[in-house]
Amino acid sequence: MLPYQKLIGSLMYIAVLTRPDIVFSVNFLSQFNNCYTKEHWAYAKRFLASGNNQLEAFVDVDWASNVIDRRSYTGYFFRLLNCAISWETKKQVTVALSSTEAEYMGISECCQEAVYLRNLLFELNGVTYPIPIYFNDNQLAHKLSANPVHHKRSKHIDVR
Q1: CB neighbour list of residue 22: distance below 8 Å, 6 or more residues apart
Q2: Which of 1, 7, 65, 90 is the most exposed place for a label (fewest CB within 10 A)?
Q3: What is the mean pLDDT of residues 7-36?
Q4: pLDDT band of 116, cuts 50, 70, 90
């Protein structure tokens, strides 16, 4: 006898609290609580082993888009097991003089959160690994992040 009803109950709990993206599927599978088959069991088990277990970061910046104060907007989110676990969108505190500076400040904000989440995951499972950051669309900011050599044109952002 398969513990199908217990699995569906656990998935429903997860869906309501943290995973709204699986609500429809779990609701559909719950219709077969009394007449499930091995096929239903296989579909329900797919929720248990889905996703990438590496923390991934995504960051992007909209440079000087606010016409009133010319400050840029930064947005980032972190994904673990294909679920967004942390995110933020906010206006940058200073005016960026270039798109490179705006992107670099956004990457800096994202990295601060990445360090916090990496330390939290280390506390939970004792494993630490690098966190890839995706969707940085400024090549100069990417190169500056990879090799923080400061030049005459980038010395105003050396503290970040």
Answers
A1: 11, 14, 15, 47
A2: 1
A3: 89
A4: very high
Please state, in angstroms and as integers, the Cα–Cα distance from residue 38 to each residue in 2, 43, 56, 100, following that order.
9, 9, 34, 55
Q: What integer best gives the mean pLDDT of the chain?
A: 82
Residue with the larger pLDDT of the pair 97 and 60: 60
* Chain-centre distance for alpha carbon 57: 5
Provide the whole-model pTM: 0.61
Residue ranges of E strands in the chain: 56-62, 73-80, 83-91, 133-134
Architecture of domain 55-146: Roll (3.10)
Alpha carbon distance 145, 127 (integer Å): 24
In which band, very low, low, confident or very high, does the pLDDT at 37 lie, cut at 50, 70 and 90? very high
Which H/E stretch holds residue 42? helix 38-45
Phi and psi at residue 144, in whole multiples of 5°? -65, -35
